[in-house]
């Protein structure tokens, strides 16, 4: 038997390849699909179907890419939507892979037409359930994506799906959700890499409610919604373009790069210290491993993206490609060294340590501290009295709340998110900006002690 889980780093997206004999199906594939094809070749199987659990919001589904290369049909969920590709899966429909059988099970709640797929063993016993975004390890799917006016309705549907269908499968059934810890598709997803119905029944805090109303009250809440979700909805129902592979940006000289940068987004994925020292004026900083988490908030889809990176550009492109960024024409050959040796201007953002900041506060300096941590972080580790709190992901829509005539000191838990914020502010006309390196462990201000309130 073949059962392989592929994880898309940063997005915490899980896709699965399952099969037996010479056949296999793929559940919720990502867009860069070579890994599925490579595994199929290695294991001597052919991919006979692609199954989607729901219309995804956080990444571009790879069904059309995989179908085009493997020559297999696509079965999608959410039949109420006007899909531009594939066929809608029916509740109870089944697929065979060798002696194994996979059956579609309608489990609405995250979306109105969400499907789970139940794998039966050769003796026809329920064995593995691919739950999509209905049920995670330690959490359940979001119910707010259709708007809060429908959240309670969706939460009620999700209760019926989980309690009436998934939990009734039996404690020994293995659960394979579409996301793990760190995904924006849940607020409290556990770090359990593998889970079962029994483990979730025992340990999932969302499944401890005694009745339907209590469950609805708990899960019908509004969570953060990155702006790129709207585009993902469109692409994942109409069907994204089939490119065959991620874009291949070309190496550009400093002069060529400068010309295209004037009409593109310059994305700098180096370390925060390298960026602070010298970067192209107006560049947006997001370190490579943080691209999946933050590009959707700060990088528009309607402009080309050119890269400044110390990493392999292919890795950054792959991460962007999964989020629907297709127009990535080039990267700066030779990095900032070539930029400087060609005589081009650069900008910098000063940094300071936590101890430096405490000393300057105690010396009476007038500083506006912009704290970009989440509200949960503030409550857990303490607030800086007098600071202005603007969570990083809300920054683009709250610029009018941040004074332009103050000396801004930007604070997070390490400096990485602060530098993302600083680069965005600098690109929007803010000039007197400093980034604090390090977290609260070194806080020692006498005049400004931390508040736990």
Structure description:
This protein is α/β, with parallel strands linked by helices and 453 residues long. The chain folds into three domains: 2-238, Metallo-beta-lactamase, Chain A (4-Layer Sandwich); 250-341, Oxidized Rhodanese, domain 1 (3-Layer(aba) Sandwich), CATH 3.40.250.10; 351-442, Oxidized Rhodanese, domain 1. The protein is 28% helix and 22% strand. The chain is built from 14 helices and 24 strands. The chain has helices spanning 34-43, 63-70, 151-166, 197-203, 212-219, 229-238, 254-261, 272-277, 291-298, 313-321, 335-341, 354-362, 375-381, 416-427, and strands at residues 2-8, 13-20, 23-27, 46-51, 74-76, 87-88, 94-97, 100-106, 115-120, 126-132, 135-136, 139-140, 174-177, 195-196, 250-252, 265-268, 284-285, 305-308, 330-332, 351-353, 368-371, 388-389, 408-411, 433-437. It has a six-stranded mixed β-sheet with strand order 1-2-3-4-5-6, covered by helices on one side. β2 (13-20) and β3 form a beta hairpin. α3 (151-166) packs across α5 (212-219). It starts with a strand and ends in a 16-residue tail after the last strand. The model has no long low-confidence stretch (mean pLDDT 94).
């Amino acid at each position: 038997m073949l059962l392989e889980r592929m994880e898309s780093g940063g997005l915490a997206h899980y896709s699965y390849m399952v099969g037996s004999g010479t056949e296999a199906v793929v559940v919720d594939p990502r867009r860069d699909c070579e890994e599925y094809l490579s595994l199929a070749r290695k294991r001597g199987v052919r991919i006979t179907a692609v199954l989607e659990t729901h219309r995804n919001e956080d990444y571009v589904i790879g069904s059309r890419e995989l179908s085009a290369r493997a020559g297999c049909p696509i079965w999608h969920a959410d039949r109420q939507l006007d899909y531009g590709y594939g066929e809608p899966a029916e509740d109870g429909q089944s697929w065979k892979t060798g002696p194994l059988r996979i059956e579609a099970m309608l489990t609405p709640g995250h979306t109105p037409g969400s499907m789970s797929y139940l794998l039966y063993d050769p003796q026809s016993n329920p064995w593995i359930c691919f739950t999509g975004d209905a049920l995670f390890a330690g959490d359940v799917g979001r119910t707010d994506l259709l708007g809060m006016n429908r959240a309670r309705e969706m939460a009620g549907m999700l209760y019926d799906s989980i309690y009436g269908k998934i939990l009734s499968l039996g404690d020994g059934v293995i659960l394979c959700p579409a996301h793990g810890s760190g995904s924006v598709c849940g607020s409290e997803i556990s770090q359990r890499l593998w889970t079962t119905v029994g483990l979730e029944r025992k340990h999932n805090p969302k499944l401890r409610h005694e009745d339907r109303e209590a469950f609805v009250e708990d899960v019908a809440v509004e969570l953060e919604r990155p702006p790129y979700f709207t585009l993902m909805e469109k692409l994942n129902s109409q069907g994204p373009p089939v490119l065959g592979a991620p874009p291949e940006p070309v190496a550009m000289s400093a002069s060529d790069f400068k010309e295209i940068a004037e009409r593109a987004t310059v994305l700098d994925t180096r370390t925060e210290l390298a960026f602070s020292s010298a970067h192209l004026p107006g560049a947006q900083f997001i370190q490579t491993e943080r691209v999946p988490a933050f590009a959707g908030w700060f990088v528009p889809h309607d402009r080309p993206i050119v890269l400044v990176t110390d990493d392999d550009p292919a890795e950054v492109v792959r991460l962007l490609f999964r989020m629907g960024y297709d127009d990535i024409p080039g990267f700066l050959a030779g990095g900032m060294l070539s930029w400087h040796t060609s005589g081009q201007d650069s900008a910098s953002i000063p940094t300071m340590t936590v101890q430096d900041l405490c000393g300057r506060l105690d010396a009476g300096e007038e500083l506006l501290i912009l704290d970009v941590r989440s509200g949960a972080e503030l409550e857990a580790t303490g607030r800086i009295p007098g600071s202005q709190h603007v969570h990083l992901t809300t920054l683009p829509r709250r610029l009018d709340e941040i004074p332009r005539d103050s000396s801004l000191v930007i604070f997070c838990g390490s400096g990485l998110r602060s530098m993302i914020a600083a680069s965005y502010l600098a690109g929007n006309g803010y000039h007197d900006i400093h980034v604090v390196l390090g977290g609260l462990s070194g806080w020692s201000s006498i005049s400004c002690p931390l508040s736990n309130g």
